[in-house]
Amino acid sequence: MGRYTGPKGRVNRRLGVNVYESNGAIKSLERKEFPPGMHKRRKKPTNYGLGLAEKQKIKFYYGLRDRQLNRYFNKARAIKGNTGESLLILCERRLDNVVRRAGFTCTRPQARQGIVHRHFQLNGVTVNKPGIMVRPGDVITLRKRPNLQNLYKHIAEGVTIPQNDWINFDESSLSAIVTTLPTFDDVGLIVDANQVVAFLSR
């Protein structure tokens, strides 16, 4: 199955968290703070159901497929320390997430589309893979094309930049520098990482 392209508001309502940041999806959860569908009395969720919901938060928030998430999980298990925290830090280091966190775009899907369409450069090299892992010292810039500069300058003016201390974004030059690796405290998603680890370890 490919990437999810259905109604984003339904996902936010199902998970009870704004994993999608578009205005319509956020308003959908604000208007109806209950899951979609026929609202009969619901059974108490099982441990499997709770773990699945937490996993889905990560999957939709970062725009991952199950295979990609499992690959990150296997990498996280090989890293010393808390596996759940390492998993989320790996997801935070994705290029599309950094482009969003810096303030180039309003949402992660928008950032991913821009990267795939070769709008961005990493250390002076044009890239088209949203899953590239950034490192401290990496510089993210736009290609030197007037139409792209004008487009993203207009977008950046209306973007609320998530608070973070590991990315420096210069709005005047439309460039971002990764100053250090993110920590677990920099993760903006509210998720129970331990439940995700237990679910993916099954």
UniProtKB/TrEMBL annotation:
The keyword Acetylation does not apply. Residues 93-149 form the RNA-binding S4 domain. GO terms for cellular component: small ribosomal subunit. One of its GO terms (molecular function) is structural constituent of ribosome. InterPro entries: Ribosomal_uS4 (IPR022801), Ribosomal_uS4_bac-type (IPR005709), Ribosomal_uS4_N (IPR001912), S4_RNA-bd (IPR002942), S4_RNA-bd_sf (IPR036986). Part of the 30S ribosomal subunit. Contacts protein S5. The interaction surface between S4 and S5 is involved in control of translational fidelity. Belongs to the universal ribosomal protein uS4 family. HAMAP family: Ribosomal_uS4_B. This is Small ribosomal subunit protein uS4. The lineage of its organism: Bacteria, Pseudomonadati, Planctomycetota, Planctomycetia, Planctomycetales.
